[in-house]
Amino acid sequence: MSAINPKSSSAAEADRPSREEAEEAVRTLIRWAGDDPAREGLLDTPSRVVRSYEEFFSGYQEDPAQILARTFSEVEGYDEMIVLTDIRFESHCEHHMVPIIGKAHIAYMPERRVVGISKLARLVEVYAKRLQIQEKMTAQIADTLNDILQPNGVAVVIEASHQCMTTRGVHKPGVAMVTSRMLGTFRENLSTRQEFLAMIGRPHNGNALT
What we know:
The chain has helices at 9-15, 19-33, 45-56, 64-67, 117-128, 134-149, 163-166, 185-188, 190-199; strands at residues 82-93, 99-109, 131-132, 153-162, 177-184. The protein is an alpha+beta fold.
């Protein structure tokens, strides 16, 4: 499945440094920045940073396919759009390892099966809790949902602020990046795409976010 991280969990665990090695790496960075990791205020910083990384990057420990494994088919023939909007997420840029903060909007047109709405939010969370670029994250969410549920269509729109350009580099606060992936009927049917974009408050002329 193309949307899933191709590296096996066992191989990743075999390559994973120990906690002590990770904490020593933080001490090295503190020294490189020009401070003393042995001073009182920084003594516990390496362990705090490692604990925070466990939370920031917990998505590597979860299988997105398993999140969507439990589905429901008793939906009385419901085949209209299912939309979950404004799913807030926090991720980290894989180029500079600084935060990406935004929200995702997800829609799908069920064929035979639906999934609990909390699973859609969890799917976003799993991919957000990895080193990311927004374009890849958008595709991963859409492709995984499409591969597992096999619906008539999937739409994902992500809006996010990237601190790699707001707090460093070009220093342009207030800038948001928007990415989208439309599959199936959302790509093929203009009225379906327009309905979804109207629901999430995005422009929906014929050329928008196709």
